[in-house]
Amino acid sequence: MVNEVSAPTLASASTTKNVLTSTAGREIPRWHYVIRFTKALICLLSVFGLWLAAIETRLGQVVDEYLMDSGARWNGYFHGVDQVILLVVSKYAIALVGVLAILVALMRRRLRLGLRALAVIGLTLLFSQLLKYQVFSRPNLALRYVLPNSYPSGHTAAAVAVSVALVMVVAPRFKLFFSVLGAAWTVLVGYATIINAWHRPADVLGAIFLAGAFALAFTPLEITVVPSPRARSFLGYYRRLGVIFFLLGSALVALVAYRTHLVLRAHENANYDAIFNILEMDTLPLPALSVGGVFLLICGVVMLILRAIAALAKEKVGTKVP
Question: CB-based contacts of 98: which residues, under 8 Å, 6+ apart?
């Protein structure tokens, strides 16, 4: 006797051709993985692209230096809070977050997830140092003096790494909250390094992209229930706000870069101090535009990357909205 296969079974079989099975045993479409690794690749390419644009060109170095000097004017207005923030980012704090990530993963019975989070922390910190001291260099393009390479920022890399590690290991319903918290923490650390003249904005952004690349590559796709309408609305606002910050910050930084380009074209042999003085006399408030542009750009990049990591918790098809 021949067993007949029912129509639903055939439909199910055809559907599973384009899906993969998650660690929880449920099926996830293949294109979700394609999007995930594409975003990770974009972050990785951004690390190298930013280095080429901001460090390997004279215009990039002048703009990057001017953006840092504009932010450094705020040093002293925070009454030492920025110094406290930088002191918190230590090897002990990183180790504490690593232990916390493992504990949370064990509570969820997801030890492999905890190990992935530790891998993101370790690889981000390792490659930030390797890239800074072994791969990238900072040529002398007639600025103030010969400066050692500081790209990418180790402090910012540590801040982003611990933030994404917590976003990775917490339950899906808490991911958005920790992504917002992690974004705020990363922005504080990154901007504290700028106003203290420890790092230039390119160093900060490069570290964020580096951590984002590893986080998107190692964070597994998870299936969760459909969030409430209020949560879904907040997810949309959070993403749109990140896009607005990114575009507005990019536009302001591009405006500063354009005005700097005009100065460099008119004074080809001028050193940085002379260029700085000319920019200070510009009709536009370039220092304010620089501070606002860098802040918005860092906020936008961090928000979009952490939002992308949190979004790897996919909705379970067919569940009802609570």
Answer: 117, 118, 121, 162, 165
Q: How far is CA 155 from CA 31, 60, 77, 89, 211, in A?
A: 34, 22, 21, 7, 12
CB proximity list for 81: less than 8 A, separation 6 or greater: none
Report strand pairing: 222-224 vs 313-315.
Answer: parallel
Which run of H or of E encompasses 27? strand 27-29
How is residue 320 written in tokens? 């009802």
Is residue 148 within 8 A of residue 78, CB to CB? The reply is no
- What H or E segment, with its residue span, contains residue 222? strand 222-224
Rounded Cα distance between 109 and 106, Å, is 5
Instruction: Enter the tokens of residue 312.
Output: 């790897």
Find, among 287, 289, 288, 282, the residue nearest to 255 by Cα.
Answer: 289
Environment class of 170 (CB within 10 Å of its CB; exposed 0-12, middle 13-18, buried 19+) = buried
The tokens describing 10, both together, are 């055939």
48-92 confidence digits (pLDDT tens): 999 999 999 999 999 999 999 999 888 877 767 777 777 777 777
Q: H helices within the chain, ranges in order? A: 7-15, 30-54, 58-72, 81-88, 91-107, 111-130, 154-169, 172-195, 201-218, 229-266, 272-280, 286-310
Distance CA 35, CA 250 (A): 24
Which long-range contacts (C-beta less than 8 Å, at least 24 apart) are formed by 82-88? 82/192, 82/195, 82/196, 83/192, 83/196, 85/188, 85/189, 85/192, 86/155, 86/189, 86/192, 86/193, 86/196, 86/198
Rounded Cα–Cα distance for residues 289 and 151 (Å):
23
* pLDDT tens digits, one per residue of 223-257: 665 556 666 777 788 889 999 999 999 999 999 99
pTM of the model: 0.85
